[in-house]
Amino acid sequence: MIATIRLLLLLTSHLGGFLPEGRKQAPPDSVVYYINPGSRLVVKTGKSGLFGFAGHTHLIRARSVAGQLVYRPGTHASSLRLALPTDSLEVLTPPDTAEIRKVTQAMRTEVLHVDKYPEMTFAADSLDARSGKMEMRLMVTMEGTTRPVPVTADVTIGADSIRARGTFTAKQTDFGIKPFSGGPAGTVKVADRVTFCFDLVAVRDSARTAGPHATSAASATTVPGCVDKSTVQADSARRPM
Asked: Would you list the domain boundaries of the chain?
């Protein structure tokens, strides 16, 4: 009897190598990562871009970004969900207090209508999240309208964190947003296309207290793809030779 059991065990161990690939082991478990409050998301305008006035370039940061990444290693089934309160958007440049107030007011009341649409959302499914480059079909919702936007991100996966950096562009009119027109005799025209730049860090639940919990204005102006050149030039001018 003992000899028979040993023979069965031996056969089982050898046959294991011939079982179908999907039967060798259970699919890897998913891991939930939460967006760290120190993550950065910035909107960059051209000289007459979104919320642009008087021909100035503007950077607008999101003071609050929340969400999570459900990571399923080795599959194409990871997913991302982000939510951005529209009243958390803050105009940073140019450094003119009066103009910043004017732009912020127009942005909230005439462009985004934050009273009716208090949130922007970003979602992607079927992600193949791995270190390196990742392409995704991001579903962007603004003013109650959802449109797919292609996005390419640089991804770094650590022991307890995942970091994604990249940019994408979107047209206001695709979301039913009427580009702003105003100024003296209507001379200020708002460009339709804007750029979103992101530097997102997601951490495991056990690491949620680690890392920065606030994005400073200075930090927001240095997000790759949305660097405020005027700030860089000013810093260079002040730097001793």
From this structure: 27-238
